[in-house]
């Protein structure tokens, strides 16, 4: 094998490996009716960034949230620049936060199995049900027992629970 051929093979090997190191991506679509009929794209989640999306193919729009560990920041400029803190991830709940140092506020949402409840106060007490997750579909929910309503979102790909809670809090 000549030196040129070895260099070419090495370059091809590196380029093919670079494609598999891509960030994990999920597409979140609007959904309609009790059967969760998918509609246009609503959000694209890449790694720790949540982008708005549009159209049937999920054209990625500006970045709106950045997830870094247990902190969620608003995007300062739509291009992955970190702005002020929006939420803190606290166990199975999502807490409002503010400022650059993520000062803790009141609880926003609490996940309890497949149900997601609105929450009150600093101790994340469950209030009324907001959403019910079944498979890859998210439905509106009502009451203390999370009675299922119409679908609002359909998830395509792997989506972290943290990213899903942030998207649901934004609805």
Strand and helix map with partners:
Layout: H1 3-20, E1 25-32, E2 37-46, E3 49-54, E4 59-68, E5 71-75, E6 82-90, E7 93-98, E8 103-112, E9 115-120, E10 125-134, E11 137-142, E12 147-156, H2 161-170
Question: How would you characterize the overall build of this protein?
Answer:
- The protein has a domain at 23-105 and 150-170.
- It starts with a helix and ends with a helix.
- It has a twelve-stranded antiparallel beta barrel.
- The radius of gyration is 19 Å and the shape is flat.
- The chain is α+β, with helices and mostly antiparallel strands.
- It has helices spanning 3-20, 161-170, and strands at 25-32, 37-46, 49-54, 59-68, 71-75, 82-90, 93-98, 103-112, 115-120, 125-134, 137-142, 147-156.
- 32% of the residues are buried.
- The longest helix is centred in the N-terminal third of the chain and has 18 residues, at 3-20.
The structure class reads alpha+beta
| Number of discrete helical segments | 2
User: How large, in whole angstroms, is the Cα Rg?
Assistant: 19 Å
- Which sheet architecture does the biggest sheet show? 12 strands, antiparallel, barrel
The mean pLDDT is: 86
What is the general shape? Answer: flat
Give the total of beta strands: 12
The helix content is 10-25%
Strand content: over 45%
Helix/strand order, N-terminal first: HEEEEEEEEEEEEH
In spatial order, strands of the major sheet run 1-2-3-4-5-6-7-8-9-10-11-12
The end-to-end distance, rounded to whole angstroms, is 59 Å
Note poorly predicted spans.
1-22
């Amino acid at each position: 094998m000549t030196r040129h051929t070895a260099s070419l093979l090495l370059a091809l090997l590196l380029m093919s490996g670079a494609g598999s190191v891509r960030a994990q991506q999920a597409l979140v679509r609007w959904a309609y009716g009790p059967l969760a009929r998918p509609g246009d794209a609503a959000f694209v989640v890449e790694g720790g960034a949540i982008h708005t999306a549009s159209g049937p193919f999920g054209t990625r729009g500006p970045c709106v949230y950045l997830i870094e560990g247990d902190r969620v920041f608003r995007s300062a400029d739509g291009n992955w620049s970190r702005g002020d803190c929006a939420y803190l991830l606290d166990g199975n709940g999502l807490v409002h936060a503010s400022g650059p140092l993520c000062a803790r506020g009141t609880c926003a949402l609490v996940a309890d199995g497949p149900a997601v409840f609105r929450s009150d106060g600093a101790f994340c007490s469950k209030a009324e049900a907001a959403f019910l997750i079944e498979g890859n579909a998210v439905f509106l929910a009502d009451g203390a027992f999370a009675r299922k309503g119409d679908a609002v979102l359909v998830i395509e790909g792997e989506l972290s629970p943290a990213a899903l809670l942030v998207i649901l809090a934004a609805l």
